[in-house]
Amino acid sequence: MENFTVYNPTRLHFGGNIINNLGTTVKQYGKRVLLVYGKGSVKKYGYYDHVVSQLQESGLEIFEYSGIKPNPIIEDVEKATIIGKQNNVEVIVALGGGSVIDSAKIISLGIASNENPWDFMTWKLTPQKAIPLVTVLTLAATGTEMNAAAVVQNHSTGQKVGYVNPLMFPKDSFLDPSFTVTVPKNYTSYGIVDLIAHSLEAFFGQGEPSVIDQITIDIIKDAIQFGPLLMDDLTNVELRAKIMLDATLALNGLTSYGKKSGDWGVHGLGHELSLLFDTPHGASLSIVYPAWLKLQKNRIPKRIIKLGKGLFGVDTVDETIEKLMAFFMKIGSPVSLNEIGLSDDSRSSILEQFKKNNVSGMHHNLNEVDHKKLVNFMLFQ
Amino acid sequence: MENFTVYNPTRLHFGGNIINNLGTTVKQYGKRVLLVYGKGSVKKYGYYDHVVSQLQESGLEIFEYSGIKPNPIIEDVEKATIIGKQNNVEVIVALGGGSVIDSAKIISLGIASNENPWDFMTWKLTPQKAIPLVTVLTLAATGTEMNAAAVVQNHSTGQKVGYVNPLMFPKDSFLDPSFTVTVPKNYTSYGIVDLIAHSLEAFFGQGEPSVIDQITIDIIKDAIQFGPLLMDDLTNVELRAKIMLDATLALNGLTSYGKKSGDWGVHGLGHELSLLFDTPHGASLSIVYPAWLKLQKNRIPKRIIKLGKGLFGVDTVDETIEKLMAFFMKIGSPVSLNEIGLSDDSRSSILEQFKKNNVSGMHHNLNEVDHKKLVNFMLFQ
Known about the structure:
- The structure is a homodimer.
- By secondary structure, chain A is α/β, with parallel strands linked by helices.
- Helices cover 49% and strands 13% of the residues of chain A.
- In chain A, helix 10 packs across helix 14 (347-356).
């Protein structure tokens, strides 16, 4: 086992009607609240009203920033930061999925400083503090509700950057599975892919196997068992709860105990596809993971077989990859570039992008030859 | 799934030589340190010198309380509290196993108040604050290093009381598996029993099964796989690390996600044996658990079989109990009262004690008829 540190101070409130504690929880951090959300589905389905009435009942003053995009961009973070500073907000409430919460994390750094928040994400500056962040999750996927990570795009620099800082742990996160029953079929599927991909990044990270291997497999297995049932029964709160818990466990630190690092190569590759083609994050991962496993087939066969045995009871690398691809297809997430409307024509732009941002894993390095093989697999698998 | 809250702010430092960060970590909480430890084995094996030199290198002033007993008593807590207050200590370092750390948690409440700490444990008074606690673990067993619970005995009232308060989360816990290689064979065994029992208390708690069921089973499975190897190779640091991680995971909250409560009936029963006969905690649990499972045999057969299938691949309640007993015997922990020198003569005093403290579970209630059956099983299994 590698040396490791566990630290996760987020208070997670999980279950039905848990939102009734939102107002009193937020109030302890301040009276002036910046409410951050996306493009309107939270209004359409009533979550916005629910949250606002909770905050108002506790006598809180609400300022708003809406319009965060599914692949969030730094411009929104910058604009929200200005609104927050102008109104001297003391606490942020983020209502949404990964893009909203990730943005809110960076906003929480921005409001507490006089710097451009992008300079934190690119390590030019080190943030010293953040204002408190409370989240209300409406999409089970990224695990951002219980970690200190955020991913934001910058189209002007052509980067999609992941940034981790303990200042960005949400103080409190409210997870009511009934807030996720309106997630459409495709994003439900992408969320399941995302949580599985997070578990896999840890599984293929650096460090000797421990009990955490088995726990990681348990999380993926749960998603593989209940994900397809959920796809056929989108308003089933109990199934939503299972996937919601799986998604949190997949990236709240647990799967990395005893590891030096996760790998994160697949996420790096997927981020580039999202940057180029605005591919939803989960969709990019279900395309990249099978390709990555094919690339690693002869390099880490034992590890892949351990996964296949644990997940599917199979004994070979090929069967493992086939079963995983079949699962992604079953829940309706793409496994090839063709499925998202790309052809051989996009090959060179993808390779250029991979090269430009030097995409690799933290444990399993990728070079330009690997990039070529990966794109081949992604095109034709 | 039941509604639940996750909150665990303890920073866990796990691995070899991790102790080198102790001084700088403690220093951030204050300069005057109360070092709490047990009866001398930490001196014998050099852990004490290691810790003291770390604290001294950081320029900290050390005050000491030693002599905490394996089943810790409130008198030691009270005496240590006085020493801490007299010397205006700002932070506690607990060097030891569960008894030392549990005592230190209550001491941390006592030093921050003007009350008798026993009044907190018996819910007469509510503590308002605690001074920071940093732990250095020398025994993998209770999980106290990453939770907010403490168990202390009071012989004058004839009680062994468990108390939980978020103020008692250690700020930091240092887990170097090499600090546990000198734990003697019997206490190594009791530690393994303890972590398994914690997992089982959660497994048999109140709440519908979720992915946490499988995670709980896998923690127990890891201990069942590697525990016996460790019993034959006590100085193997890698095996010590596995059991150490299992023990932390078994009671850091993870196994209770999605549960309303654990059961804790077996712990309640075991505590009474410890009170009466000074039975080591783990030894009491390996005696009580098989008896409790026999009592529940016809009440929750499906649940017990799920456990047996997950742990041992067996399909019946009887086989599950047999296999678990066989495991406890294999690692040298007693499974009957006879093995700890008790006979039928002790029956009435045990029953009286169970009755006096009204021992029951939080989920599976126990009445006097159950108590009688349990003692029968414990005597003759």
